[in-house]
Amino acid sequence: MQKTKQNNFENELEQITPIINQLGFSLDTFQPHISGEKKLMRAVTTASGQKLILIGHQEKGNKKVIIKITKDKKGVHEIEKERICRDALKNIIFAYKIFFSPKEILFTKIEGYTISIQEYINQESTFLERPIEKQFSLALKVFKAQEGAHATTYRHKKIISKTFGYVDSDWYIKSYQEFKNNIGEASPENKKLQETLQDGEMSLIKNKEIIEQYCGFLTHTDFVPHNFRVVNNDIYLLDHSSIRFGNKYEGWARFLNFMTLHNRPLEEALLFYIKNNRTKEEQISLKLMRIYRLGEIIWYYTNLLQKTSGDLQTLTNERIKFWGAVLESILKDQTISEEAVNKYKELRDSLRSDEEKQRQKNLH
């Protein structure tokens, strides 16, 4: 079955290539967004909102571009929503001014495909290659900017709800409960994880008022280094489909969970800043959002588990264990030990293919 889906994936690329060529563009040989694990994941999942993200060049001028293309109904909706959000950010009336967007070169629908082609944003160095002080200041600048966009009135909510979407405390709790229940049904033997997830649910319910208190803020739910570029001090967003109005700290939570693996000093610096510059309620709000996002990622990998095999299945199991341990630490108001992180990373890297290692290098 997996081999059949893999063949379908390769057939799809064969169908797409002449269409891209017809539009005056060519595809690069190496495609980091669909190689390694990304290729395998796409072959074994039927996740909503599927789209291909490809790197290519415009034949006229040999300009490097990013090509987003899909036939999937939800993927089409995602691309169209991203365009709307990108345009809306230019005109938003409540203090959101530091993010830039790549220029759209072409948007078209052809042979059943929806295609968006944007300029490729070059940067002198990746976010993670910059000095820790620069990473800290850039991250703080971004999150403060998002906090400046606050839907404080009914008029604001009405304006943004149709464009960006709006979620509240009930939505966060319900979504987390769905993650927990789905994980329980898929892995009923994992009692320890269920207990940890249950503790997380109780924390969310107990602190519902705090979650709601900090809702109504613009947040990018997938703000991690491979979704933005830094040029001088300007931030270019590469993914606008993940923008919505919700809890002030949801974007922080995603970013900090990412840094748990990729940059512990930055995680610690940002947590230190929150502890010393924000209220106790805001610290709790951040903790609650980290719990919510960890429930989400654990369900993501649990859902993949039975659809994988070999090293990828082993790695998926280890990811579930690792993020479960991170969740357990957060619930205890701790950070997971450096030893546990390094042990997981060593095992993860031993299970990754050479192609995936190369993809990660290019991605980050």
TrEMBL record:
UniProt name for this protein: Aminoglycoside phosphotransferase domain-containing protein
Natural source organism: Candidatus Campbellbacteria bacterium RIFOXYC2_FULL_35_25
